[in-house]
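Hi support team,

I submitted a single chain yesterday and got back a structure, but I'm not sure I'm reading the token output correctly. Could someone confirm the output below corresponds to the sequence I sent? I've pasted both exactly as they appear in my results page.

Thanks,
R.
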Amino acid sequence: MYKNHLLPYTTSMTDTNSPSKDKGSFSFISLGCARTLVDSEHMVNDLKSAGMSMVPEGSNETVTILNTCSFIQAAIDETETNIKDLTQRKKDGHIKHLAVVGCYPSRFKKGELNLKYPEVDLWLTTQEQSQLKPRLTELLFQKKFMPSTPVKYTKLTPSHYSYIKISEGCNNWCAFCTIPKIRGEHTSIPLETIIKEAKDQISYGAKELLLVAEDTTAWGEDIYGKPSFHLLLDELAKLPIKWIRPMYIFPSRVDSDLLNVIKKHDNITNYIDMPIQHASDHLLTSMNRRHDKAYLEQLFKDFQAEIPELQWRTSLIAGFPGETEEDVDELIQFLHDYPFAQVGCFGYSYEKETRSARMEGQVDAATIQSRIERIMTAQLKLVEERNQDKVGQTLEIIYEGNQTARSQFESPEVDGSILIENHENLIPGQFYQATITSAKGYDLKATVNV
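Hi R., thanks for writing in. Yes, this is the structure output for that exact sequence:
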């Protein structure tokens, strides 16, 4: 969840139109989720259009940009570790300027940040990220600089898949979550803009589009007066793309319209990423999740009846205030009754700005860790049993390189992968038919059919 997307400089990022290094070189580090990575990719290309060249971190670059995460304390700790490392590099003369952008400066007051990290030259919140290009060009060149010729687009993910951000911010106000404070109220990106971005990414080689937002199912509410994610999916499915993968589904907004559009289009994956957080009614109410266990049960039954092959990914929270061992038992039973192919379980993080921080029944760290282990041990046993049923099945896979592949039932970066035994002549980014030959735990092995 808090993956450090250190952006390496590779030959694929080299641009023959890039300006010389004396006009300003930059390195870029992106922390956090896929939504942050989308922002990073746009910022990288904005800076290149301003005449700057991207170089590897540690190349005595003119400026380093750190795009940050501060969702929970673990993410804050990672961000501050990176800031400390970069400020030391600046003191040592290895970089001239340091810019910190994104969620971290959105969560804290800039005056406090300036006192804590005086070596940082530029702080920009998530709402100010579009100012990075003019602010840096003024800082570096003392004037606004634009190149005379366009530059080639730089992708920060492998060419065969792309993240498409469809909205910004969130209005859900879950009791444990800081995102509405950090990224502001929900704002949908217009349909025409999303379609253009999707077409552009397809032209760069994308065969899979992953739709991301704080809550994808809220898309369109501020434009059309009601959530309209199914309309967006319907339009995107008309594009020449192999897979469209819906991520970050909010359970209470899932309805028959969404079910029907997934069923209608073959290029929408039979995979839904839908964080349920828990299965205990009193905890769901305390979390302000706007649904109960019975609603989740009916939702799964409806989808299973209409799309039997559909698989689910979810995220869970262990140790939310007021959680008991009986609540954990209930959640584990829910995982048994309504199987998820992929599960991530995170310990509750005490964040003082949230409502849950003021709740009684705070759970200690050792108990939280023990509950995570209980939940994930139970999930592993369930996955082991289900994966044995996959042996002998033939799936369409996309080869990632390095002996690994994915089917439509695995999302890049957050899910597992399939180990390909006869990988020698396979081309990364190409689709193949593969037969599952063995399964152990979460791991699958397969042979590509030749």
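A quick pointer for reading it: Residues 1-22 have pLDDT under 50 and may be disordered. Let us know if anything else looks off.

Best,
Support desk
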